[in-house]
Amino acid sequence: MVLSARFSRSFPGTAVIAVDFELAMDRFGLTVLFGPSGCGKTTVLRCLAGLERPDSGAIRVGDRTWFQAPRQELPACRRRIGYVFQDPALFPHLSVAGNIGYGLAGGSRAERTNRIQALMAALGLEGLGGRRPGELSGGQKQRVALARALAPRPRLVLLDEPFAALDRASALQLRHPLRQLLQDLEIPALLVTHDPQEALALGDRMLLMHQGRIVRDGPPARVLSEAAGAAEGPMGAVLRTRVTGRAEGLLRLRAGSAELFAPDPGGTFLEAYACIRGEGVALETGAPGILSQRNRLQATILRIEVQGPLRRVYLEAGMPEPLEALVTAWACDDLALAPGRPVHALVKASAIRVVPIDV
Amino acid sequence: MTFRTFLLGCMLAAGLPGLAQTRPVPVAVAAAGDLRGVLEELRQGFEAAHPQIQLQLSFGASGSLAAQIQQGAPFDLFLSADEGFPQQLQKQGLALAPFPYATGSLVLWVRRDLGLDPARDGWQVLSSPAVRKIATANPRTAPYGRAAEAALRQAGIYERVQPRLVFADNIAQAAQFLQAGTAEAGLVSFTQADNPALRLLGNLWQIPAGAYPPLRQAGVILKRSTCVDQAQAFQAYLTGPEGQAVLARRGYGRP
Amino acid sequence: MDWEAVRLSLRLALSSAFLLVPLAVLLAWPLAYGRFRGRVLLEACSSLPLVLPPTVLGFYLIVALGPRSPLGHAWEALTGSRLVFSFQGLLLAQVVTNLPFFLQPLVASLGAVDRGLLEAARTLGSGRAGVYLRVALPLAWRGLLSGLILSFAHAIGEFGVVLMVGGDLPGRTRTVSIALFDQVQNLDLAGANRTALGLLGLAFAVLAGTAWLRARERSWS
Questions:
Q1: CATH T-level assignment (fold) for domain B106-206
Q2: C130/A76 touch (CB, cutoff 8 Å), yes or no
Q3: pLDDT digits (tens, 9 = 90+) for B53-98
Q4: Where is average pLDDT lowest: A239-253, B15-29, B176-190?
Q5: Where along chain B do the CATH 3.40.190.10 domains lie?
Q6: pLDDT per residue as tens digits for the range B222-237
Q7: What is the ipTM of this complex?
């Protein structure tokens, strides 16, 4: 069964959002809707959820019509979708358990309680059932929002920048359990983000939006690397660096305790973002030979995520953020890569896009 | 705030009718404003003799009360300040035959501290500039107001005093204006002017009977009444020796 | 102090306040969230009793409830007694007169509820009624309470409409405010003073109560 969405919505002024895509509804898949802020990603989500009405087009699921211009629509409450808002939107007059159980209907009280408990356990919320939302931290609130959206067993989950309101540590902590839970429950998801790292970490598929339209559709790694440098392209893995030297058209950048060489885009600046595509990072164990890479960093493997036939290897390389390297499963096995193992990360300077920071 | 609390409140509030089963039979009496005071005394005397009957008194302008009765107000007995309204109700089939119970008299009352003496100077006192407002009942709805207007016209001074007239809804309210001092003079019933509150404050002059059509006050039992017997008992008391004695003491003439 | 009038006033005010709860809850929904063509009309009509002189209100109520009206006629056929000049007729009149006092704080409270919460409820499967009853109304409970208190207080003090629709029948329609009027006409100043002070105290208590509620609401958000 497939969700087919082909609609447009215009806003006063000039903005028009026109999308055309399909989502598989009968199996798990995490699709990332990616693009800079304000390009209409949230609107797409809201139209799918039934919170807003497109101006033209149609949304169909299987042979059921969710929306057909101009006026035929299935109300939001009947679409059986889960929605996680950027701001958790927890009901202040209900407890955590009450919030999570809000959408549960039918079944015995015992069944409902079990379901709530199971979700709380899966998201690390044990023991908080009686608390009120006002007593929770940001990360806990978002977990409750997630549990609440998933409790009624929706057919599709829509997530609108769910980590945007969290601090980086909480966001990172939640990323993996989120995907794992969705996978376990076999619920397809559409996640909106403007963070390329997040997209790469979570998505099986990426829809890249630019100026209101979906311009690329495919695996996140490929889409990002193809789009890098293009107008719609993302930044990739972003590191904040300080410029410590310039020579021969190259910049010497310092990020944390690591030093990188990257192409000098020109101009005078003291700090810049270094966008390192994981595809541009190679890993090596053992002593180096003669290599073309200028950047050779000592690193320790934090964890490895499976990405189809590829492996996304997270490395602690003395930089403020983990460095990500994208290698094949073969390479992973050949090098016997495992968390905790020390390796060398070789970053092609040409794979680093430097985005100056204007003070 | 639970739903149950709401329900409970609803039931408690709306469902508290009279609980006692052996209460005396209530007779609802609609009485003209001038009877305020004297009717209270009559009630006490009557209820002492008839403990199983309880009189509930409502006062107003005779015309207003007649209108309410026409609209279905559940009175048993109507004591008007004239004969016209009771006769009208009888003609409309709403009431039994009217019975006269008293004759009223109109007086001119003036505040004592103005130094005027209406008993000596009669209508002259109204030309004093100290009398800024003259209270009277609304001639359209109150027989005493009609009588007052007639008396003023007969004396030939109506046009002159008209700008200073203040119309009260009924004659009792006119008396209240005098007591409160919002009017310095007024045309009220003798009974009201004789009330201790007003007697101390002012001087009065009984307007000669010929100056206005006689205030023959009649009462009537209403057909819709469910306690006609009890109402008739009070009618008998009112027109009998005890009632008449009270009325005479308070300044009413015989019917 | 005319205790029968006090009891009557309390019964009347409490009954009308509680009867208003379902009516106001029902009407507040389209007023707070509706976006339909007749909405302005609905808003104007429900606020009408606030601005109409009590005599106009009383007059139209007599026309609507009197023996010649369809409602009055039906009532008489059912119960054998008139609707006007009865406690029940007065109750009906009070409900109409006090509706805007209940509606205004409730609608304001509903409007202040975070729309995001209502959308979340919709995505969780609540239809419009579910969203209203399970999320919006519970979060607007202070407006509900405010409306209840205000309409109760207003009903206690209502005079013009009560006099016109109810008359001055002791035990049935002679409320405290009418009794006060009576005491004045009886030249019983001492009694009138006592009654008036009692009413003043009540009004003050009500205002203090609503002010306290408002202060708590501010500190809550």
A1: D-Maltodextrin-Binding Protein; domain 2 (3.40.190)
A2: no
A3: 999 999 999 999 999 998 888 999 999 999 999 999 999 999 999 9
A4: B15-29
A5: 3-103+215-249, 106-206
A6: 998 989 999 999 999 9
A7: 0.81
Taking contacts as CB-CB distances below 8 angstroms, the residues of chain A near C117 are: 89, 91-92
Dihedral (CA of C60, C62, C68, C69) sign? positive
Instruction: Name the residue in chain A with its Cα closest to that of C126.
Output: A77
Q: Determine the pLDDT at residue A235.
A: 46
**pLDDT tier at C58 (50, 70, 90 boundaries)?**
confident
Neighboring chain C residues of B33 at a CB cutoff of 8 Å = 185
Nearest residue, CB atoms, B176 vs list C82, C85, C184: C184
Mean pLDDT of B174-201: 89
* 3+ Cβ–Cβ pairs closer than 8 Å linking B and A: no
* Partners of residue A149 in chain C, C-beta under 8 Å: 123-124
Compare all CA atoms of chain C with the CA of A45 and give the residue at the minimum distance.
C123
Would you mind telling me the total number of residues written for chain A in this entry?
359
Q: Residue A99: pLDDT above 90?
A: yes
d(CA A139, CA A136): 8
| Environment class of A155 (CB within 10 Å of its CB; exposed 0-12, middle 13-18, buried 19+) | middle
Is domain B3-103+215-249 classified as CATH 3.10.290.10? Answer: no
Residue A356 has pLDDT above 80, yes or no: no
Nearest in space to C10 (alpha carbons), one of C166, C175, C173: C175
Backbone torsions φ then ψ of A254, nearest 5 degrees: -120, 125
Which two tokens mark C66? 């009197």
Residues of B with CB below 8 A from C163's CB? none
CA distances to A195, A214, B67 from A220, in Å: 12, 14, 87
